[in-house]
What does this fold into?
Amino acid sequence: MIPAAFDYVAPESLDAALAALREGGEDAKVLAGGHSLVPLMKLRLAAPSLLVDLRRVPGLTGIDRSNGTVRIGAMTRHHDVATSDLGLAAKAAATIADQQVRNRGTIGGTLAHGDPASDLPAVLLALEGSVVVRGGSGEREIAAADMFQDYLTTSLAEDEILTEVRIPSPDGWGAGYAKFNRRVEDWAMVAVCAAVRKAADGSCEDVRIGLTNMGGTPLRATAAEEALRGRGLDAASIASAAGQAAEGTDPPADLNASEDYKRHLARVLCRRALEEAVAAA
Amino acid sequence: MSEGNGTHVGQRMRRKEDPPLLQGKGNYIDDIALPGMLFAAFVRSPEAHARITSIDASAALARDGVHAVLAGNDVDLEAGLPLAWVPPGVEIKAPEHWPLAKEVAKHVGDPVAVVIGSDKYAVVDAAEDVLIEYDPLPVVVDIEAALEGGPLVHDDLGTNRVHDWSLGGDVESALGAAEVVIERRFVNHRTAGAPIEPRGVIADYRAGDLTVWSSTQIPNFLRIFLAVQLGMTEDRIRVIAPDVGGAFGSKLQIYGEEILLAWCSRKLGRPVKWTETRSENMAATHHGRDQIAYVKMGASRDGRFAGLHVRIIADMGAYAMFLGPLIPSLGAFVMPGCYRWDAVRTDITGVYTNKMGTDAIRGAGRPEATHYIEVMVDQMAAELGIDGVELRRRNFIPKEEFPYDTPVGMTYDSGDYQATLAKLLEHVDPAQERGRTADGKLRGIGFSTWTEICGLAPSRATGPATLGVQAGLWESALVRVQVTGSVTVYTGTSPHGQGLETAFAQIVADRLGVDPQQINVMHGDTSQGPQGLGTYGSRSLAVGGEAIARATEKVVAKAREIVAHKLEAAPEDIELRDGKFSVKGSPGSGMSLAEVAGLAYIPEGNLPEGMEPGLEQTAFYDPDNFTFPFGAHAAVVEVDPETGKVDLVRYVAVDDCGPPINPNLIDGQIHGGIVHAVGQALFEQMAYDEDGQLLTGSFVSYALPSAAELPSFELDRTITPSPVNSLGVKGVGEAGTIAASAAVTNAVIDALRPVGVDFINMPLTPMRVWGALQEKGGVTA
It folds into this structure.
């Protein structure tokens, strides 16, 4: 449990952090809480030569709601998201690991890490949010749909730093989060997040469903969404839509969950998440 | 009881040992630093079975601060790692077992080389630079495949069959005559000890003397084997077990790392330290359980038990560990459980596989035995259509029949099984704990009425000519009253988290009339106090505590003689009252222990004619029998039929370990013990894939349950003294672990039986339970 040797800097501005990252080359990594990266280093599954810690960079924390968009600073702790009024994001963040991890881990850190078993990537994807990144060539916004490329791989360039997370305002949406794990602090075996907006007649005006740990990246349950959008929100249509939650997925199996079992869980959890979301909509 | 009036014994005294531990002032192996100390890092086999074809250490040796890289053939020891069980008349096929594999690595994690250097980080880096080429050999992982012609783990043995051992009589006749016979196949899967502190060793050889600090349960045994393997005499060796952060049996072992570090220190002339990583702990600290059992049980139609035949195939892993092959036999001794039988028989076959060695893990053979017995009792109850609780009542050994000679040759010391079960049923009503819940869960209740054999000791029944343990199993104590009246107690046991310093102090305090806080309990240092044998098998109180009580009584006897002499009374007229030794009827004339000690150490005219000065006494205690604690447990579970997830929602335990010395410590042991077995039943599994790769090498995948997964336990007790020792105590460290896996499993089966699932093996993971439901067509919420 001893990591390989590495250098460490904690710059006091974003520009300095970007410069350090650039100079550190391809083996430099950003440290933004460290509750995913540091364990990997201790197991020597990751061996960055330089850690650029963002903890002293000003302006990267806080939640700002204006004009229908929520802007969350990349270094905002999970605890602060979990205790906010951000609907689905808050519900999902409240289930991350344990309180110690929620006090240290950050939203930007977990999204940039790109672990499909983590809670927030699927939420960002389902909400059609985006991330703002800064690099040598300036700032750009990456839509969630373009963000997660493969297992632990995102579309951030090596010299870019994620600075802000944007999600639409949760106003008018009901949220549901159904996470299945063996122990409360575990990563999700499977989790399903759902957001539902009701039409005036009580039918489903819009629905978003995200799947956690059902593939190499977070996924949208598109077939289930389409099955429900525009339909009534009664138990039968919810169950029917949820039955399609695992359509097109090829989940990774492990000791405790076969592919079939994970697909089954996705369907059960989708129904439960939808029921919760509809009740809150 | 002693003359002490029980001021301290029986009280919920807070643990004396906790303040320094809670304040970060403990003294664990990794806290200890010696001048000039070097560090060791091990290079371990990534292969389950492979010939070591080359080792290139040049890059590692070229690194700064690296002093040596050693492989198996570089190390010359007088003997290999020990197997301390040699049962008379039974052949155990034991392979050579060296601290570093010499030609062939036999399991993932088998040490192949060690890097020694001056920096604890640098040696880990250097270990990555040791280039080892392996030629993979066929791997055998499955226990039954290993027995039935699978690849050989040890070519030179010509078989994977370790040994065959049996206990019990003609069970076939009993089963043949029984009206109803059922048979089940159990898989009692492999688990880890998973102590919070992994292992650690420091060895310091200088000027002919060797000092070894080790996170061990058995410092005295370690000293003996260091002497044997290094060709030294014990008088030149000191072993210290400082604060030890848990063990659960996993540090009841003579590990290669302990021997090798001592050898390296002697070779290099410098102290050497190794601190095990969690990854190493999971892969290369011994595991437990891992049995397949074919169990046959016979009974009459009206529910009288006739015969029980348990055929166990036990996975030893790749080597015969210190006591590994003995462990399943410990279960055989209590295979009758709490019941009367015509015959009980256990047949055990040990098997080698390409996995880490197995040995004692909390309960050691008895959790497996209780699991088989208690699950079978419920299976039989269902077969007969008799309620499981009622079936137990009909077959319990009645309390009038104790001491009770079982059909397997044990004599149960004392018991009142009806009383514990009756008390349990005061707390839980089975009728209220069954059926479908409002949210669609399947609720069920399971019972486990258990007994176990502990207080290991006695030597007459465990030694070379009988059971075959190559040691005595007595315990020792030295009680020393210093000149100012302070008291130091030396015990040969080796506490590692149980709170025994507190319990021992309570025993001594009552007898000497002093405050327990004034009593310093010393343990885990072979240079202090007499030879002892360590902590395992719930023996520390029943054997070690009794030794302390006896040594204390000897001190009291001497104190009374001194006081009698001084007060011109007869020794038998001296009593301890309100902290003073006084003449009966004249409390005003009494003397405190400090005053007595002053006389004992400044004897000028103060001692009776011919009495030696000083006030300390030693006792060696070897009991006449084992002790047999018992209890009745009930688990209530709710199963989510859609996901298969099992929630333990209630756990009620009534245990009997004799008169409590400190109820807090008992509750703590019961709590931890229950969690350990709930862990096995629902969460924990050491799993290897078919290539022998470890799948559960960290706490991410090895799912130890936390408080969040468990209900608050409901505990109660009955008190049935053991006649074996003067304290009446029976031992409690393993009780919860021995009882609980059967209660949980029976509860899950009880919950699932209405939907057609009537038997299932652990671990009861969500996928396994869901799979069992799917086989019955599935259940909707």
